[in-house]
Amino acid sequence: ERHPRKTKSRRAEVREETDLIKAIEAVTFSKSDMIDSSHEVTVFRKPGRGFVVKGLKTPPEGQERTLRGYRVAEKLLGGLVADFVILRDITINLDGRERSYASVIVQKEMRPLGEVLLQLGKTGNVAKAGSLLKEKARLDREVLRRGAYTDEIFFRQYGVTEKDEVVLIDLGHVVDDPHKVTPGIFDPAYLPDAPIGLKHRLNKRGYS
Known about the structure:
Low-confidence stretches: 6-12, 195-208
Shape: globular
Largest sheet: 6 strands, mixed
Strand content: 25-35%
Oligomer: single chain
Radius of gyration: 18 Å
Structural class: alpha+beta
Mean pLDDT: 80
Helix content: 25-40%
Distance between the termini: 25 Å
């Protein structure tokens, strides 16, 4: 079982946040650094920086829904998610032009599970791929055990740490009332002990 890390003092948190804001605002991102852009979030990743920046778009209700998911994860899923911090009023430099965001999520950069599995498939390392899939299945069950749930269980929502642990990286859909979102969620059909290959799907939600 993975456990939450010890909390830091508020003074240490403020100092780290200030340094992080300076680091982000000193970076000039290019359009090639925009790795994802949905109707709710734009994700920036500058190679070698060690973090990704998720700028939350308007409208406000969309921002609040996303932030609520991250707050639930912060409260319930310590040790199961990529480290992150929520910052306010950040300016992103995109090709020399400033973009202002009322809220951004700065998250530790992870290797996306889907990309890792694809590379393992190319090299024929089936055993390692199977191990990561079992790790993902264990993670999904532990998330439920802690009273949380996300209906976004595709490979792209997960990352792989340096220790080959699988963690959640997209937390905007995390809720603390699994039964309300999906009645009968504890049915084994949703979360089997182990996934059945890369193409296995769970009630049309899926591992792929």
